Amino acid sequence: MSSTVCIIASIAVYLIGMLAIGAHYSKGNNSSDDFYLGGRKLGPIVTAMSTEASDMSAYLLMGVPGLAFFCGVAEAGWTAIGLALGTWLNWLIVARRLRRYSAAVGAITVPDFLARRFHDDSHLIETLGALVVVVFFVPYTASAFVACGKLFHSMFGVSYLPAMLLSAFVIVAYTTAGGFMAASVTSLIQSLVMTFALIVVLLFGIRTAGGWGAVVENAKEIPGYLSLFRSSNILDGAVGSFGFIPIVSTLAWGLGYFGMPHVLIHFMAVKKDSMLPLSRRIASIWVVLSLGVAVVIGIVGFGMAKAGAIELFSNSSAAESMIVRTAALMSENGLFLAIIAGLILAGILAATMSTADAQLLAAASAVTQNLLCGVFGLKLTEKKNLLIARIAVLAIAVVAVFFALNPESSIFRVVSFAWAGFGAAFGPVMLFALFWRRCNRQGALSGMLAGGVTIFLWKYLVRPLGGAWDIYELLPAFIVSSLVIVIVSLLTAEPSKEITAEFDAV
Questions:
Q1: Nearest CA among 98, 140, 111 for reference residue 421
Q2: What superfamily does domain 2-27+47-505 belong to in CATH?
Q3: Ramachandran category for residue 40: left, alpha or beta (phi over 0 → left; psi -120 to 50 → alpha)
Q4: Is the pTM of this model over 0.85?
Q5: Residue 375: is it exposed, middle or buried by C-beta count within 10 angstroms (0-12/13-18/19+)?
Q6: Per-residue model confidence as pLDDT tens digits over 33-45
Q7: DSSP-based three-state secondary structure for 42
Q8: 3-class SS at 37?
Q9: Taking a C-beta distance cutoff of 8 angstroms, is the pair 218, 209 a contact?
Q10: pLDDT tens digits for 380-429?
Q11: 241 - beta bridge partners?
Q12: What residues contact 461, with CB distance under 8 A and at least 6 apart?
């Protein structure tokens, strides 16, 4: 009983701290620019860590370890490699140009930037971009709420629904109050809590499994479990080839970064573009280490199951609660470890919240800035704009809650689909907008549409065919979108001299 009290107290302190930060930064939101971009005042460390914390959602502490636990190293490992490469490249080639260009044209959202980049007076790019943001962020945010509900249900036996609703309330409360600065500062804190959770779980797990040697020996009992080139699972021990197509397919996760609105807005919000190289180094190192540890934790978890410390999960979705089970086990070993267990669970909440708050802001900005103000031309005072922005955050959260009512949803699978949607719809057009002078409005609009449509067609019509067609939908959709942008841009009129002059100046 005392261990449960310690865990609840640790989590309560953490949640209260998040709400306090939201209340503090609510005083500094005097305009939509403040609410959505923090007035472009982020320093290099906050930029780096808040960006990566907003990216590394619950799949870092639940999805990746769960997949590695059940299926071994291959899929989780290549996904982690792809994400690490994508992170580094995004910081290297996109961050500085986007910061300069978005500031030059006065853009505060991704659809807004694309519309201003191509001088789209028809508002078609802004409309399509806003719809993409809302459509894919709702399930993405819902996956965060699912993670919170699973956490409390697994740990305390609390009914899933009220646990999920309470978590959603806290996230919405501090995001609505404090806006982007609250989300960024809390994300910095959350990244530190996540790091702490990963390290402690790894060390405790190795000790509980009987040492590193025991972990490796248990893993070797499953054919292909430790191989990057073999597929397996812990139930039937069947081994298959993890060859060129699945490797390329999982590496393609890295392409998604070029189109993630909740990541890109952090580039736009940094105080000076000269700060970005330092941010890139910090972010890249943290991502490599955290993803690597997450994969290893999955393998260690299997060793713990073989030692009888935790159950042997029957599928990868169930295995996503592995760290929760580990925290529960830790809490049974004295008061101090019970407090540590509470901090680990707070780390899972941190991973979830740091992504959900950024997603809610991005989705709300799409509704208010891009649709209401940009497309429909509503003229609002800053006070009314802020009010509508906060209402939009609440409304989108309510929709996400309905999507999160099913506790059986796989966090990893839901995130992978939303990730593909953003990567294909925004990734290619963002790269061409920043690096290709000849790219025009027609090409950009066609590419966004082609990428988004291909995601659905490949996911539900082509990929089920299996074999060579079983490729992560992001890769073919990214290629299709890129080809469409190039072909349509070359077949239609060149951009105006005003647009090309602006491109050259930036």
A1: 140
A2: Sodium/glucose cotransporter (1.20.1730.10)
A3: left
A4: no
A5: middle
A6: 555 555 566 778 8
A7: strand
A8: helix
A9: yes
A10: 666 776 677 777 777 777 777 777 776 666 566 677 788 888 899 999 99
A11: 230
A12: none
